[in-house]
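Schema walk-through. Below, the input block comes first and the output block second. Nothing else is stored per chain. Lengths vary across the set, and this one has 131 residues.
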Amino acid sequence: MKLIIKPERGLGKIKVELEEELVREIARLSERYGVPVERVIEIALKGEFRESAGELEELEEKAEELEKRAWKLEREYSPLRFKAYGLSEDNMILARELAGLIAENSQLRRFLGLKPKRNPELRRLISYYRK
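--- output ---
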């Protein structure tokens, strides 16, 4: 790869031939950190880079380990969430049926001339599951 460095002012320019191994390393760094190849070369020439002293690699390993643990927990709790969803659907169906039975019971009590029963706690429970 041929690298041409032009000054901001003036006519002088520098031409440099880069080895293939160096070009591959620059491309790898560019891809790894998500910056353009030109920016990687600029940082290398200006010396604006900092050594990570192994911290970056250590953090990447920890992140991978945490990701593996998260997926393991996801596999464990996924069936439980599915069962909980099924139970909540069953509760909604039962709440509808119970509301219908309470209404039927009230009609029968009126028909028999009995005083209708009001159970606010049961109605609150039914309204919770009918959402």
